[in-house]
Design brief:
Order of helices and strands of chain A: HHEEHE
Number of helices of chain B: 7
Largest interface: A-B, 16 and 17 residues
Mean pLDDT of chain A: 85
Oligomer: heterodimer
Distance between the termini of chain A: 94 Å
Order of helices and strands of chain B: HHHHHHH
Shape of chain B: rod-shaped
Number of domains of chain B: 1
Structural class of chain A: mainly alpha
Helix content of chain A: over 70%
Number of strands of chain B: 0
Radius of gyration of chain B: 28 Å
Number of helices of chain A: 3
Distance between the termini of chain B: 87 Å
Low-confidence stretches of chain B: none
Largest sheet of chain B: none
Shape of chain A: flat
C-alpha cells in the first residue's frame, strides 16, 4: 500500500492538505467560541471595580462628619461635669449628717435585740431537756421490740434449717436415682456394642466365605479354560505317518486378545522328532482362535500346555 | 486546566491518548490518499472499457486492432490487455497447428489470466480502507476509555469531588472517539462504493471475455 502511495505524491499532498484545512477549521471554530466567553468575563470585572471605588469615597466623607460631631459632644460634656461636681459636694455634706442620725438609732435597736435573745435562749434549754427524756423512753421501747424480733428470727432460722435438710435429702435421693439410670444406660450401651460387634464379625465371616466361594469358582473356571484349550489343540492334531515315538511335550503358546496366536515354542520335549514337533505346531495354529475363558480376568497371555497324544 | 480550547485539551492529554490521536490522524491521511488514487484507477478503467468496447464493436478487423494495440508504446491495461493476450495466444496456437477446440481453449485461458491480473490491480489495497473503517472506532474508543480512566483515577485521592475536576479529562478523552469516527466514516463509505464498482467492472470484463471467445471460435472453424 505504501509503495503505491509513494508513486502518487499528489494524492498524499492532497490528503494532508485536506486534513490541515479540517483541523484549522475546527480549531478556529473553538477559538471563536472561547473569545465570546472571555469578553463577558472582562465586562463583569469592570462593573465590580467601579462599585468598590464609590463605596470608598462615601466612607471617607462619613468619617469626617463623625469626627466633628464627636469634638462638639466632648466640649458639652466638660461643662456638665463641672456643674455636677459642685452639686455632689453639697450632697455629700447632707449625707454625712443623715448617717450620724442613723448610727444612734441603730445602737438603741441593738440593745433591745440582745435582751430578747437571752429570754429566747432560756426557753430553748427547757425544751431540749423535755425532748431528751422523750427520746430515752422511745429507745427503751425500741430495745424491747428488737429482742422480740430476734426471737422470731431464730425461730424462722430453725424452720429454714429443717427445710433445707429435707430438701437435701430429696436431692440425694434424686442423685441416686440419676446414677442408677446412668448405670442402666451404660449397661444397655455395652450390650448394644457387643451386639454390633457380633454382627460385624458375622458379616466379615460371610464376606470371607463369599470371597472363598468366588475364588473356588475362578479356580474351577481356570481349570476348565486350560482344559478347553488343551482339548481344542488335541482335537486339531493329526498324527504324522511313520512316527512311533510320541513323548509328552511342553508347548508355550503366546496369545493375543481374542485368542489369536502370536507365537508357539517348545519347552521340555525330549526325543520328539522334527515332524512330530511341527505337527503339534500345526495343531496349535489350527486351533486358532483359542477358546475364551469363563471370566475375562482369567485371560492369560502366556500359556504352557502339556501335550500328550496318548 | 482552565485551557478548554481544543488545542489545549490535546496538549494536556495523557501520552496514550495523544498516541491514539496521532495513529488515527495518520490512518485518516492514508485512507484519503488511497481513496484518491483508487478513484483515479477505477475511473480510468471504466473510461478505457467504454472506448475499447466502442472500437471493438465498430466492425474493425481484429488483426488490425491487435496490430494497433501492440504497436503502441505505453503499457496496455484493462480490456485492451485482455484482448491483446487472448489474440496473441490465439495466433500462436494456430501457428502451432493445434486442433480448433484446443486453440480456443488456450486463448480463453490466457484471457482469464489477464483478467484476473486486471481485477487484482483494481482490488488491491481496498482491504486497507476496510480495516481503517472497522478498526479506527475501536482505537478511538480505547483512547477515550483510557482518558476517562485517568481522570477518574485522579479523582480517587480527593476528598470533595466536583464536576469541574473530571470534565476536562473526559472532554479530552472524547476527542479520541470523535477522531476515530472521523477517520472511519469516509473509509467505510469509500470501501463500499469501490467494492461495488470493482464488482461491476469484473462482470463487464467477463462478458467481454465470453463474447470474444465466441468470435475466436468462429474464426478458428473458418479456413484461415
Amino acid at each position: 500500500m505504501f509503495s503505491e502511495l509513494l508513486k502518487h505524491p499528489r494524492a498524499m499532498a492532497l490528503s494532508i492538505g485536506f486534513h490541515l484545512v479540517l483541523i484549522a477549521a475546527i480549531l478556529i471554530n473553538f477559538h471563536f467560541s472561547d473569545n465570546t466567553n472571555l469578553v463577558k468575563q472582562a465586562d463583569l470585572a469592570k462593573t465590580v471595580k467601579a462599585e468598590i471605588i464609590d463605596q470608598q469615597q462615601l466612607d471617607a466623607q462619613k468619617n469626617r462628619k463623625k469626627k466633628e460631631q464627636e469634638a462638639r459632644r466632648k466640649r458639652e460634656l466638660e461643662k456638665q461635669n463641672k456643674e455636677k461636681q459642685a452639686k455632689a459636694r453639697e450632697a455629700e455634706k447632707k449625707r454625712q449628717q443623715a448617717e450620724q442620725k442613723k448610727r444612734k438609732i441603730a445602737l438603741q435597736k441593738k440593745k433591745q435585740e440582745e435582751a430578747k435573745r437571752i429570754a429566747e435562749a432560756k426557753t430553748l434549754a427547757e425544751q431540749k431537756k423535755q425532748q431528751q427524756e422523750a427520746l430515752k423512753k422511745q429507745q427503751e421501747v425500741k430495745k424491747q421490740e428488737e429482742q422480740k424480733k430476734q426471737l422470731a428470727a431464730e425461730k424462722q432460722k430453725k424452720l429454714a434449717e429443717e427445710k433445707r435438710k429435707r430438701e437435701e435429702k430429696i436431692a440425694r435421693e434424686a442423685e441416686q436415682k440419676r446414677l442408677e439410670a446412668e448405670r442402666l444406660k451404660q449397661e444397655a450401651d455395652k450390650r448394644r456394642l457387643a451386639e454390633e460387634e457380633q454382627k460385624r464379625r458375622q458379616q466379615e465371616l460371610a464376606e470371607k466365605l463369599k470371597a472363598e466361594e468366588s475364588q473356588r469358582r475362578l479356580n474351577s473356571l481356570r481349570e476348565a479354560y486350560k482344559l478347553a484349550i488343551k482339548q481344542k489343540i488335541e482335537r486339531n492334531w493329526r498324527q504324522p505317518q511313520g512316527i512311533t515315538e510320541m513323548p509328552d511335550c511342553e508347548v508355550r503358546v503366546i496369545q493375543g486378545p481374542g485368542g489369536i496366536i502370536l507365537d508357539v515354542s517348545f519347552g521340555a520335549c525330549q526325543g520328539g522328532a522334527k515332524t512330530y514337533r511341527s505337527s503339534i505346531e500345526n495343531a496349535v495354529f489350527k486351533a486358532e482362535p483359542l477358546p475364551k475363558p469363563g471370566d475375562p480376568s482369567l485371560f492369560e497371555r502366556e500359556l504352557i500346555i502339556l501335550f500328550n497324544p496318548s | 486546566m482552565n485551557d478548554t480550547s481544543l488545542l489545549g485539551l490535546v496538549a494536556n492529554a495523557s501520552i496514550p491518548v495523544q498516541l491514539v490521536l496521532v495513529i488515527l490522524l495518520f490512518a485518516s491521511i492514508f485512507s484519503w490518499a488511497l481513496m484518491y488514487v483508487k478513484r483515479g484507477y477505477i475511473k480510468q478503467g471504466q473510461a478505457e472499457a467504454t472506448t475499447f468496447e466502442g472500437r471493438f464493436w465498430s466492425g474493425i478487423n481484429l488483426t488490425d486492432l491487435f496490430a494497433q494495440l501492440s504497436g503502441r508504446q505505453e503499457k496496455r491495461f484493462g480490456m485492451e490487455a485482455i484482448f491483446e493476450s487472448g489474440f496473441r495466444e490465439f495466433a500462436r496456437a494456430r501457428k502451432a497447428e493445434l486442433d480448433d477446440s484446443s486453440v480456443v481453449r488456450s486463448a480463453h485461458r490466457a484471457m482469464k489470466v489477464a483478467m484476473s491480473r486486471e481485477v487484482e490491480m483494481l482490488d488491491s489495497n481496498l482491504s486497507f480502507l476496510a480495516t481503517v473503517g472497522s478498526v479506527s472506532p475501536y482505537v478511538g474508543l480505547f483512547g477515550t476509555v483510557w482518558g476517562i480512566m485517568e481522570s477518574f483515577r485522579g479523582l480517587a485521592g480527593v476528598q470533595q469531588a466536583t464536576m469541574a475536576m473530571v470534565a476536562p479529562g473526559i472532554s479530552e478523552a472524547l476527542i479520541a472517539t470523535a477522531m476515530g469516527l472521523l477517520a472511519a466514516i469516509p473509509a467505510v463509505i469509500a470501501y463500499n462504493k469501490f467494492a461495488n464498482e470493482v464488482d461491476s467492472m469484473v462482470i463487464r470484463y467477463e462478458n467481454f471475455l465470453e463474447e470474444f471467445t465466441g468470435i475466436l471460435q468462429r474464426q478458428a472453424q473458418a479456413p484461415s
